[in-house]
Amino acid sequence: MRIGELAKRAGCDVETVRYYEREGLLAKPEREPSGYRCYGALHQETLQFIRHGRSLGMKLAEIRLLLDFRHHPEEDCAGVDALLDVQIARVEEQISAMGTLKEQLIALRGECEQRQTNRTCGILRAFNQAAQGQACPCHREG
Amino acid sequence: MRIGELAKRAGCDVETVRYYEREGLLAKPEREPSGYRCYGALHQETLQFIRHGRSLGMKLAEIRLLLDFRHHPEEDCAGVDALLDVQIARVEEQISAMGTLKEQLIALRGECEQRQTNRTCGILRAFNQAAQGQACPCHREG
DNA sequence: TGAACACCCTGTAGCAACTACGGGGTCAAG
DNA sequence: CTTGACCCCGTAGTTGCTACAGGGTGTTCA
Fold first, then answer.
1. B35 CB neighbours strand C below 7 A
2. Are A127 and B106 in contact (CB under 8 A)?
3. What confidence tens digit (pLDDT) does each residue in A6-31 have?
4. What is the CATH number for A40?
5. Count of structural domains, chain A
6. Which burial class, exposed, middle or buried, applies to B22 when counting CB atoms under 10 A from its CB (0-12, 13-18, 19+)?
7. What was the ipTM of the complex prediction?
């Protein structure tokens, strides 16, 4: 199949496929006499493997490792497990950080309930306070 | 004060300060005869304003808008409010996406409880299934 | 026959927000 | 007078794509 068909099956962009090839994640395919890339089932599988990893938020470097692990079937899978653990920890950390952020933003948003002018807007005021090193509603403790 | 002192006070890197100057967020400072940048309280305030916005996850383009709003004090602050609303929505969306991701990762992690080889590892198996278009533990519905 | 159109090629640049050089100059202390 | 901390500029790298520009290929419809 040609690159457009492959991309469609994997649900990604043609440019993305070429990018993975450049990065060495996807093997270089045969070419038609015209120079068009010509893919088979194995390419499709690898591409979908990569996209699956991406959909789980993994980095290409990590996916590269996972692809390598497949080539060492008798090896202990501790590397795979560790990779997952790192990814879970990363996501948990981000969820926690985002939760804090949300609280801060909501506290800040509450500073300007009614329409005001920029001069009197509680949000801008809070920003200016923070800029002067003072406490602000979004970063107050407790 | 010189750039190192300014950066230290704002809790950021010297390179970051120069970057903001290049981007037009921070006004170009005076120079000492040596060519060293020479900052005052206003620069420090603006820099801290920017860093405060960044700490709330805002983009530089949005912070640029906030800085502009300060120059139109009599204007209706709807623009400021809208900016915050957008940011809150963005964070909520990310929290939700991350929550889904975490569940998927934990389901996947559970596929390999004991140490195994890469060949038998449930995580790699699930990846391979997904790569073949089949259902996988991390993306099953329900 | 030919013109339109979808598809493919390469190579390069852009995005966001920094970060990290390389190759220099300045300045105070020991 | 040399060591070391600081500063300068300009450019390239990071991540994972995305978007051209400027061309070739291949099928279909009039």
1. yes
2. no
3. 999 999 999 999 999 999 999 999 99
4. 1.10.1660.10
5. 1
6. exposed
7. 0.90
